Amino acid sequence: MVTQYAPADITPIPVIPGGPLLAPAYRIEAALARARAGGARVRRSADPAVYLVSSVSRPGLWHRVDTARATCDCEGFARGYLCLHLAAVGSALRLAAPPVRLLPAPVASAPAAPARRPVPGWLAERRAVQARRATRARRPAWLARVLAS
Length: 149
Prior knowledge:
39% of the residues lie in helices and 14% in strands. It has 6 helices and 6 strands. The termini are far apart.
């Protein structure tokens, strides 16, 4: 079964509030569900922009999440996936901060193509005749003279 998403679900929002990494809301929710199911824990580090998140697959291992650059040192993020560690830190920061309503970015509409004038009937007929002539096999000049006489 294919899940249908509303346009609001696929609007990219920051994974970490104010961060440069954007993802659709349903991907962030999926990463948060994996973090909750695995019992991921978020811990502050000495650097205010860096958080440590416990690994779900390998107990005892902590992954380093940099909120300034929105990066994680886990294998999933290195492969290009939205990792649960980033989503867990983003969720923790959202809960600690006052709720902010994120509005979608305005969509720039493409300029409308200029309207084409209709082709007059005589011109359309002339173009059709020229197309037929171009596709017709050419007769050699000597055969054209014989047939004309």
